[in-house]
Amino acid sequence: MGIILSGLKEEDAKKLVKGLNDLLANFQVYYQNLRGLHWNIKGKKFFELHVKFEELYTDSQEKIDMIAERILTLQGTPLHTFEDYVNVSKVRVGKNISNDVESVELVRESLSKLLIIEREILDLAGEVGDEGTNAMMSDFISEQEKTIWMLNAWLG
C-alpha cells in the first residue's frame, strides 16, 4: 500500500475519490437543475427567484471546480461526462419546472441529498486524517444548512 502525495494511504485516498466523484456527479445535476430553474421560472416571484437561482448556480459552479481539484489532489480522475453524472447522481433531474414552489422544493430536496453525501465524506475524511477534504466538506455543510433553513422559511 503506497502513500500518495497528500500523505494519505493510497487505499484511503481511493475511497475519498469515490465519495468525491459521487458528490461531483450530484453537484453537476444540481447545477444543471439550477440553470433550468433560472431560465424557466415564471410568475410573481420571477425577479426574486431568477436572481437567487443564478446566485446558487454560480456558487455551485465554484464548488464543482473545488471538488474536481480535490479529486485531482488525491490523484484521482474526476468524472466528466453527462452519462457518468446521470448514472451516479441521486439528485432528481428537474425538467421543465417553472412554478415557484416546485422550484424551491427541488432545490431544497437536492441540497438535502448533497448534505447526506457530504456528511459521509466528512466522516471518512475524519477517519483517515484528510484535513483538506474535511475542511471543504465542513464549509459546504454549514453553508448548505443555512440555505435549506432559508428555503424552508421561504416555503413557510
Explained architecture:
The protein has 156 residues and is mostly helical. Helices cover 77% and strands 0% of the residues. The chain has a single domain, classed as Up-down Bundle (Ferritin), CATH 1.20.1260. It is built from 5 helices and no strands. Helix 1 (10-40) packs across helix 3 and helix 1 runs antiparallel to helix 4. The longest helix is centred in the first third of the chain and has 31 residues, at 10-40.
Overall SS class: mainly alpha
CATH class: Mainly Alpha
Number of domains: 1
How many helical elements? 5
Features:
Ferritin, mainly alpha, 77% helix, 156 residues, 0% strand
Can you lay out the helices and strands and say which pair or pack?
Elements: H1 10-40, H2 46-73, H3 82-88, H4 100-128, H5 131-155
Helix pairs in contact: 1-2, 1-3, 1-4, 4-5
Give the gist of this structure.
77% of the residues lie in helices and 0% in strands. The protein is mainly alpha-helical and 156 residues long. The chain has a single domain (10-155), classed as Ferritin (Up-down Bundle), CATH 1.20.1260.
